[in-house]
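Work package 3, deliverable 3.1, input record:
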Amino acid sequence: MNKIFEIPLYPYERSPDQDPPSVARHKVIVVGAGPIGLGAAIDLAQQGIEVVILDENDKVSFGSRAICFAKRPLEILDRLGCGQPMVDKGVVWNMGKVFFDDRKVYDFNLLPEEGHQRPAFINLQQYYFEEFLVNRVRELQAEGAPIEIRGRNKVSAVGTHPDHVALEIDTPEGSYNLEADWVIACDGAGSPLRAMLGKDFVGRVFEDNFLIADVIMEADFPTERWFWFDPPFNRGQSALLHKQPDGVWRIDLQLGWDIDKEREKRPENVIPRLKAMLGDDVEFELEWVSIYTFQCRRMEQFRHGRVIFAGDAAHQVSPFGARGANSGLQDTDNLIWKLKLVMEGKAPDSLLDSYDIERVHGADENILNSTRSTDFITPKSEMSRMLRDAVLDMSEHYEFARPLVNSGRLSVPCTYDRSPLNSADALDGPERTRPGSPCPDAPLGDGFLLPRLGDRFTLLTIDADAPDRIEEDGIEVTRLALSVKDDPTLALKERYLGDATSAVYLIRPDQHVAARRASFDETLFRAAIRRATGKE
Amino acid sequence: MSDLILTPNIDGADDFYAELLATHEGLETAESNALNARLVLILSNHIGDRGVLSQALRAARLQEEE
Ligand SMILES: Cc1cc2nc3c(=O)[nH]c(=O)nc-3n(C[C@H](O)[C@H](O)[C@H](O)COP(=O)(O)OP(=O)(O)OC[C@H]3O[C@@H](n4cnc5c(N)ncnc54)[C@H](O)[C@@H]3O)c2cc1C
């Protein structure tokens, strides 16, 4: 049986663009059909913006890379029309165990907050994730949306011009040229576009190798995240076991720096390692094995004129904390509405610079978190190992030490504090919904809040009056009128009012708060709209 | 923010010091170091106040307060 990652999902087809004389010009070209490029293109097409995705390959990600997808990206995927199949297929988990040496030191329950449509995390193979995104592309095409994927179209040269970007593309039938008003570079960690523009970057390479194996087994391990520090079967190193759909299990084994990668990857060397971990009597089959070295780094700037970088092309983190694909989707969530307004002439070009500011801030937060996890997992000095072991030893006995254990701080979205798009906070309300924050979900009768926000500017009023519609210099804002009574669980009140009795929120198309105050004030909200669109 | 206490604050200083030494008695250096690491973490958690902890970390490096 062929695995999904072996089947060409977007096989090469000749495009009329390949037949000169004239070079075709597209509105937006997305380079790379990984999770981030697909997400960007779907968002554009849903908003009616013409987009072509180019990928040098024609299949989804080979084998398994990302497995752990957090609530925020699932909410973004809901807005992109493909959250449900992911959640339906994914494995939901909340429980975890931490082992040190030969014993379990504690277990934990993530205890996700109630009143959210989406779970805190699901585990899902990246190839499914990409497949569902490609399905969504096909669905949009069937509806007549202006979106196209071209497989085996490899970008080999780029030229930047004041009013467009020129690309040279290699295909099985030779090369051709294209032009685009805008290019979104989602061409992955090794980003050829980044190199072509001379924007390659250095960063911190963790001198460590990880064996990542996906095994198929009928085992009765529970749906939990198990993490080992210094276990007998992998002395001095760490290990992780995590469940994926279809009876596939993810195993990460830290191997250290001085190893022979090719040798370690061979089944005759991998299988004994896994047997030592799983026990001799567990039957398993290897689906995919690879060895990775991780880096934490980012580009200095994500925007270079009309070429905008997103996802791994712009920043990379170690996988402890599941921040790669998760944060990449937050990039495109931030970018697409801004690009749309700029393309329609409704916002100044400088609005795109706020993408840079906000997502560089996000990347720095992710890099910081992922660096700290890596430093805990792989102590860099004798003293840091001693402190690490002290934390682990005590975590078995004393609850206080458990929050210090760091096997990855799982991805949460960042708040764009100090963003130039925020208006000063004018509500004595909860911290978590201050300007810059991603809107937390809340139950509303038989539905939820988030599906009613997004794609456009919204004026969310809670027990407050406001016009149903305002237009400020081309930006249309529609009202969503709610009352604390709409949510008997009081989550809405707790998350959006706190001690206040009423509130008016200006919410961006990416579901982040731009401004808030206790009541509607036309002048101030018009100023907030201008500010949120880069006009003040 | 409260200030780190750097003036005498332990009743029966000699007794405390003897108890600290006794706790390490019979331990190899590595075990003693591990014990100290645990002790630092236990005491830090007890203090809890991040401002005081930062002052203590600086004080332990014998760095002058800015
Ligand atoms: C072992 C491992 C575990 C991980 N676990 C997680 C996790 O649990 N959660 C999480 O969120 N993230 C995780 N990640 C990170 C995640 O896989 C990446 O962040 C994610 O794939 C980035 O997506 P992307 O679209 O930016 O890049 P990619 O997925 O790398 O896609 C780039 C695309 O660009 C195409 N391309 C490249 N060059 C060209 C060119 N010249 N022309 C045309 N196309 C080109 C490639 O063919 C590819 O399809 C993990 C990664 C690894 C390795």
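The interface with chain B takes residues 383, 386-387, 389-391, 393-394, 398, 400-401, 404 of chain A (CB under 8 Å).
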